[in-house]
Each structure stands twice: as C-alpha cells, then as structure tokens.
C-alpha cells in the first residue's frame, strides 16, 4: 500500500511522528509511506489552498517533504508532484487536540482529508483529544499509537467509501485518556457545542497598535448523545463519515416547495 501522510501541526510535530509509525504498520514491509507536511504550523486554516501565490517545497529526506503552505496544499503537491503514483490512502494527523464538533469546520487536519477525498483517494483525519487524564503522561499520543492502526484497517475493509461525486472521508477523534482507558470505537454524527466557540481577545502593542488573538472555547463541554465529543468524553474513539457537499437536503426540499 502506498500511503501519503500530512498534518496541520507542522512537519516536526510529535503527532506526525506517531502517524508515521501508524502508516508504516498499515503499509506493511512492501508498502511506501510518503510524508508531505507543512513547514510550519497551519492549525485553523481549514480547506485553504495557496491559490494566489507560489508555494515552496523542500526535500527533507527519503519520501519526506515540507511545503510552505496549507495541509490541502500538501495533499495537492503529494498527489500531483511528489509521489510517482497516486496514493492508495491519505492520513492526516495525528492532530494535537480534538477536531470534534465545530472544531471540524476550522481544522486544517480535516482540510487535508477533504482534499484527498475530492481527489478520489480514501482519506481519514486523525486527532488526539487532550485532557487531564492524558495531557501530562509520557506519551500523550499513546492511545492513538495503539488503537488507530487496527481501527483504520477495519474501516478500510468494511466501511463505506463510495460517492459518485463527493466521496466520503472520515473524521476520527481519540478520547482524552491513556490507551488502556479507551472503551472502543463508536460511529457518531458531528456534534455541536454551541455559541460559535471562537472569540477574540484584543491586545495593544507597545507602539500603540491594536492586535487580536483568536481563542477557542471550552473543549470539555459534552455534545448531544450519539455525537463525536460526547463519545470522546465517555472514552470512545469517534468515527464520523463526512462529505465536502455542504447542501442541506431538508432545507432544499422545503425551498423547492416554496419556490
């Protein structure tokens, strides 16, 4: 199996090192793992692409490249420039922090998986939830390292991957617990924590100029039963099938009746 991996935390992020090991397990001794990751952190860029300016690519080592751009840029570069053939699988992550609920809409980790699906490649976004039970242990990515490879194998063998146009991709969030605290995996919908979650905090520089920091809301508020963050906070790996199609089918039906 030929696997392309990327992330939004940058090519030196510890979660990417965890993903390299996961991908090597999945690829097997005869497979290939190619890394094309952002040269620096790209958290929160979503599905952004560098459409209006050129993007530098650097060769870091065998099958390892850095892009001065977004995770979606990395997928495009990997498929259309770096790899000798189209990959069989794209893995994005392992993100430092959850991409459940509204976080999914901002996530560069998901942006890479979405681009992979648009390019017709089976793609998964992988994130490690952090909390008091795992943030300070020796390897906070331990649960991902142990549980994700077998789960991905099951999904590749049995999960739906179809789509005549907008292909399915999967958003996977590992709960904020050590590996032995993971209760299993659950199929979930995307949750909603509410109130937008993101805010801004203004600051004044010594020069008098105004700046703002964007900051997120509480990450441990539960979402509705059967949704991603609720499952994560209960100790389960959430597996959420997604598509890039943003159409609201129910509203479309009502609109047709109105128009």
Automatic annotation (TrEMBL):
Which of this chain's residues are annotated to bind a divalent metal cation?
Answer: 8-9, 43, 95
Provide the reaction this enzyme catalyses.
Answer: a ribonucleoside 5'-phosphate + H2O = a ribonucleoside + phosphate
How are cofactors bound according to the entry's free-text note? Binds 1 divalent metal cation per subunit.
- Tell me one GO molecular function of this protein: nucleotide binding
Q: What is this protein called?
A: 5'-nucleotidase SurE
The EC code for this enzyme is 3.1.3.5
PANTHER family in UniProt: 5'-NUCLEOTIDASE SURE, 5'_3'-NUCLEOTIDASE SURE
State the family named in the UniProt similarity comment for this chain: Belongs to the SurE nucleotidase family.
- Originating species: Thalassobacter stenotrophicus
- Gene behind this chain? surE
């Amino acid at each position: 199996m030929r696997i392309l991996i990327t992330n939004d935390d940058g090519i030196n992020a510890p979660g990417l090192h965890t993903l390299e090991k996961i991908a090597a397990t999945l690829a097997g001794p005869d497979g290939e793992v190619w890394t094309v990751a952002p040269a620096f952190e790209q958290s929160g860029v979503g599905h952004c692409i560098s459409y209006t300016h050129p993007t530098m690519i650097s060769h870091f080592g065998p099958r390892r490249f850095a892009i001065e751009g977004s995770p979606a840029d990395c997928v495009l570069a990997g498929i259309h420039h770096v790899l000798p053939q189209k990959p069989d699988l794209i893995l994005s992550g392992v993100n430092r922090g959850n991409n459940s609920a509204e976080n999914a809409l901002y996530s560069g980790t998901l942006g890479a998986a979405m681009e992979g699906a648009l390019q017709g490649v089976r793609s998964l976004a992988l994130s490690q939830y952090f909390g008091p039970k795992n943030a300070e242990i020796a390897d906070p990515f331990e649960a991902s390292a142990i549980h994700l490879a077998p789960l991905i194998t099951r999904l590749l063998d049995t999960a739906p991957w179809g789509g005549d146009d907008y292909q399915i991709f999967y958003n996977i969030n590992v709960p904020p617990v050590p590996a032995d605290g993971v209760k299993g995996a659950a199929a979930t919908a995307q949750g909603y924590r509410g109130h937008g979650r993101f805010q801004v905090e203004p600051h004044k520089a010594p020069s008098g100029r105004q700046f703002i920091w964007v900051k997120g809301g509480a990450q441990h508020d539960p979402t509705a039963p059967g949704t991603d963050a609720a499952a994560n906070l209960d100790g389960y790996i959430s597996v959420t099938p997604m598509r890039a199609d943003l159409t609201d089918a129910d509203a479309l039906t009502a609109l047709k009746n109105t128009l």
